[in-house]
Every structure is written in structure tokens, then in C-alpha cells.
Amino acid sequence: MHRLLAVVLVFAVGVASASAEEVSTRFRGLSLLGNLELASGKGLESGVALIVHGTLAHRGMEVIADLQKHLKARGASTLAITLSLGADRRSGAFDCGALHAHRPMDALDEIDAWIGWLKTNGATDIALIGHSLGGNHVAVYAAERNDPSVGSLVLIAPGTFDAARNAERYKARFGADLEEVLANAQTKVRAGNAVERMSGIGFLNCENATATAGSVVAWYGPDPRRHTPSLLPRMAPRTLIVLAGADEIVPDLAEAVRPLTRDAGRGRGEIRLHTVEGADHFFRDLFIEDAADVIAEWLKG
Predict the structure, then answer these.
(1) Contact (CB, 8 A) for 300 and 47
(2) Which phi and psi (to 5°) does residue 239 adopt?
């Protein structure tokens, strides 16, 4: 009896794990990697959400992995991708010792590539989910690409951009003036030297980094698209914004997006807010389950 039970359990685990799969697609000479989690009894033709991570992160980071797990348990299939940032088969956190030659808007073409992969494999109803900077990527994609297969969005604590706050944080973390670093990079770019390397600088999450001048300008220079609230009026799909009640990374987000909610109408979907009270920016502990509850309901339409 015990042996039979063990066999049944092993079989059940095998069936469950069979719906989790590392997948890849080719993009400009690179292999992009993703983790596909299909809910029980469902295929891509039943609908899928594409999940995009935050700054220099990856598909296996805690908030993304937990979100996939809890959405799958609630009947939602997901594909969590790792943005390449110029590295072939990137799967973990970006190596701070590597050259930073990437730009934030590079993500749009990679999202495009993955949506193409999903369509090729049978998906017709696609949702986009993004956390932090990934939320901004998703919002820019929706505002600028208008892919008809994307029916809904979920922006989880999406990124905002405030030049003064960025400068303060840069000074506090790296002990240097961002204005000087940025001005140096802008001078190089204007002279046609966007690929020139700038060494020994603070860059995003990395200390003593090396980045191209073009990358520095793209990440730290003014670009209204980096401020997610500015994109909301331009986005057509129905959109859920999940706020973290104790968010320490984008503390200005709630105040900025609250006036931008709307009902569906005139070819545009509704924009709705949901706050997970007590959650930090990464929805640690059990707060990710609270987020998954509302997201799963939203994905049902």
C-alpha cells in the first residue's frame, strides 16, 4: 500500500512539473530564455500572461518566481522572461563586472520577440505583466506598439522617473554627482562616441561599473517615457495597477496614478488600482499571494 502511494505521488509530481518548462527564442544573434508555467489542463491557446522583471533582474528572482507559482495555482498560465541586456542566454542577475551597453527601451523589441513566439505557438489572448521597471517596459510597449493580441495589462509597482530624486539617490549610494557623470556622457554622445566606455562609475545597481556613454545617457538622461503615469492616457488595453502600500522605491506612484483611473469607453479599456496594504516594493512574505489573488481575477476578464 505504501509503495503504491509512493508511485502515485511520484507520478503526480511528474505531471505537475511537466507544465513548467524553460523555453528560448532567437533575437538578433542571441538566445533569450524564459520560464513557461502552464496551469493545469491549459495550453497557450487558453490565454497566457507574459511577465517582465525589473532593473538588472531576471525571471527567477523571488517576486517573479513566486508570482508565477501563485498564478498557476489560481489557473493562470504565465511566461516569465529574462531580458538579455545584451548577454546571450542570460538567466541570473546581470554581472556588474560586465560592460553595460544596454538601454531601457531595448526591452520593447525583446517583448515583441516573445509575443511573436507565443503567437507562433498558439497564443491569441496575451496579457502583459511587469514588475517595477518591467511595469514601465510593459506600459511603454502598450502605448507605442498597439499589438491587438495584447488584451490586458498588469503593472505591479511600475517605475517612475524623477530627475532630482535620481540625483539624490545616486549621490547617497555612489558618493558622486550624477549631473557630472551624465554631462560627460552626453558630451561623448554628441561627439559621435556613444560606444566609448566610462569606467569606475556607479551605474544602476552596480558600483565601480563600466558603461558606454550611450548607455549612461539612455538610463539617466531625461525621457518622459520612463515615468509610467505619463503613459496611462495613451494606453488602450484594460489595465490593472497593483500598488505596494509600503513601497519605498516608488513612493510617489500612488499619488501620481490615482487621478488617471478611468472606466472603459471609446475604444479604451478601464484603468483600475488595487493597493496591497503593508507590502514593500518586492511584495515579500505573503503579500505576493494577495497580489496574485487580484491579478488572477483580473486576467479572467
Answers:
(1) no
(2) -135, 130
Do 238 and 146 fall within a single domain?
A: yes
Residue type, 178: L
- DSSP string over 55-102: TT--TTSHHHHHHHHHHHHTT--EEEEE--TT-TT--SS--TTS-B--
Asked if 159 contacts 257 with a C-beta cutoff of 8 angstroms, the reply is no
Strands (DSSP E) contained in the chain are: 20-27, 30-37, 48-52, 78-82, 126-131, 150-156, 197-203, 206-212, 238-244, 271-276
Q: Give, as one character, the DSSP assignment of residue 175.
A: S
Are 216 and 233 members of one domain? no
CA distances from 248 to 194, 228, 278, 282, 283 (A): 33, 17, 11, 10, 11
Containing structural domain, residue 194 = 164-220
CA–CA gap between residue 219 and residue 106 (Å, rounded): 11
Sign of the CA dihedral running 160, 166, 169, 173: positive
List the pLDDT tens digit at each of the 301 positions of the chain.
333 333 333 333 333 344 789 999 999 999 999 999 999 999 999 999 999 999 999 999 999 999 999 999 999 999 999 999 999 999 999 999 999 999 999 999 999 999 999 999 999 999 999 999 999 999 999 999 989 999 999 999 999 999 999 999 999 999 999 999 999 999 999 999 999 999 999 999 999 999 999 999 999 999 999 999 999 999 999 999 999 999 999 999 999 999 999 999 988 999 999 999 999 999 998 999 999 999 999 999 8
Domain CATH for 66: 3.40.50.1820
